[in-house]
Amino acid sequence: ADRLAQTLDLDMRRHWSPGLAFWTRLPKATLIAALETAPCMRRLSETERGLFAKSIGKLRKEDLVTRVEQALDGYGWLPALLVTPEGEPRFELTESGLAAIAS
Most CB atoms closer than 10 Å: which of 17, 34, 60, 87? Predict the structure, then answer.
């Protein structure tokens, strides 16, 4: 499936985005892991991230869902199952490239 997705250049961000119904079905640990990938988390130091994760874990699930949805809205977050892995780089020799090798 991964090779087919790579060949077709399938990017599920163009076809699906998580909504409230999706987030509410996830366990808190998965919600926290998703939140840790949010762009706003990149600005925090390791210590600040640890403190944030500890404090966010104390929230009720409904409040956590709201925070995750707001933090990742428009970001293009996908669950691992929907992520197309990066393919191996491929090189193609053009006529001018072949001519350069020959000379």
Answer: 34
Work out the pLDDT band at 29, boundaries 50, 70, 90: very high
Rounded Cα distance between 82 and 84, Å, is 6
Q: Which residue is associated with the tokens 């996908």?
A: 78
Residues 6+ apart with CB under 8 A from 33: none
Place of tokens 């998703």: 34
Cβ burial, residue 68 (10 Å; 0-12/13-18/19+)? buried
